[in-house]
Amino acid sequence: MRPLTDEETKTMFEKLSKxxxxxxxxxxxxPDGTYCFRLHNDRVYYMSDKMLKLATNFARNQLVSVGxxxxxxxxxxxxxxxxxxxxxxxxxxxxxxxxxPGAEQSFLYGNHVLKSGLGRITENTAQYxxxxxxxxxxxxxxxxxxxxxxxxxxxxxxxxxxxFHQADIDKYLYDKQHL
Amino acid sequence: MVAxxxxxxxxxLRLRKTRPKSLKVLRFKxxxxxxxxxxxxxxxxxxxxxxxxxxxNNREDLLRSLARENTQLLINELWKLPTERVxxxxxxxLPEPTTPLPREKPLPKQKPPTKWEQFAKLKxxxxxxxxxxxxxxxxxEWKRRWGYKRAKDDTKEWLIxxxxxxxxKEDQFAKRNVAKKERVAKNEFNRLKNIARAQKIKVPGMxxxxxxxxxxxxxxxxxSVAKISNASVGKFQQNLPKEKTPRNTGIRRKFQPVxxxxxxxxxxxxxxxxxxxxxxxxxxxxxxxxxxxxxxxxDSSDKKKKGAGKKGRKGNMSGKGKGNFxxxxxxxxxxxxxxxxxxxxxxxxx
Lengths: 179, 350
Known about the structure:
heterodimer; A: alpha+beta; five-stranded antiparallel beta sheet; B: mainly alpha; three-stranded antiparallel beta sheet; 7 strands; flat; disordered N terminus; disordered C terminus; Ribosom_reg (chain B); Ribosome biogenesis regulatory protein (chain B); nucleus (chain B); ribosome biogenesis (chain B)
């Protein structure tokens, strides 16, 4: 386990800012204690300093996970968000997409959101903007990337893709080994 | 620990006499008396107790007899020890107590075989024991087979015959010396390679190894080795044009401690965020275009709504128009200018 280097921090923040913009500040500078990002096995974990101190009691090869995993660095040093980061993305998300109850299951099975399943979308969403996907009951389901701007969404046909699927809470069930 | 097993038939026979005749089981008596046990006058009977007999009525007798027999065996063992007489009492001398301790370190690992050992095993070559001394015909004495003052020492010859196909001016003595030095160097290099292989590290860098064809990376490696192989470790060596710095050189990355300066770390991240925020272009063109499109959409939708309302009104207006002779202009004044102009134009077109 080690702190992120400047480059790694930048890569991660750039990815995070696609979803929560400047709200990363809230994650970094928290009034309720000191929280930090730590890299372990190419994965970035977000944890309080207390938890970090406890975790240092374990050898590196014996430590599987600590705190909550935000994502991992790929072999090409890109940052990939994991669904475990959703708890921190959802409250601060700048752009949201609400999915109709009928399309919820399809999204949870890993499919993109189609125009027909789109309930609501934040105004002024740009193309390829990171969005958090909610159910109509405001339950965060996952996140993805807007395939069309809000304007285009109004015009396209019902079967065209509106949000590209990236991760959803179904991963907790079917992709456990990769979390 | 040396354990002695005693088989005492005599005791057995006695035992059989005391037993009921139905149980004609031949049982060998074994008790374990180890050195440790002898020191502490202790013995273990590891034989299984006959449960049927044990549960019977004469359990006490059985136990008593067993105890007695085993004590007898222990005392027999005592008698085997050296005894001496002290004031009319025979005293056996017990062995010194010893405490076996477990080994502190694990057993040393077996050395991995050298390249030659691997080859010899593959070919089934076995070591032959050779005598250290051999008879030297020239000096008429026993000399070492190899090494200092060896028999048939070809470096100590005072005359060498020049081979027929050799250059007559070549120094044959020097040639031999060079060949010898090279063999020694090669052997040393092989020794180092064996050590490196055993420790699973890279073979020590030797610059450009003499191979028939060198790859680009090998040449680059050799060049980089040559570059730092001077007195100043390449500090003042200038780069060639288009020369790339080889990979895996330079300063190793050093990471911050896991538990260090949390405040500093946070400040650094906040600064980074500030920098990232400032780098964003102030005018996001796509965003602006989208906004513009949205406004246009809103406008057009407004127009449609109002236009639809107007159509209804149009009829009224035309009705009003018919009744325009009355010269009532107040109703028209309420209608927005731009939109008010359109119907007359259309009318005009008609």
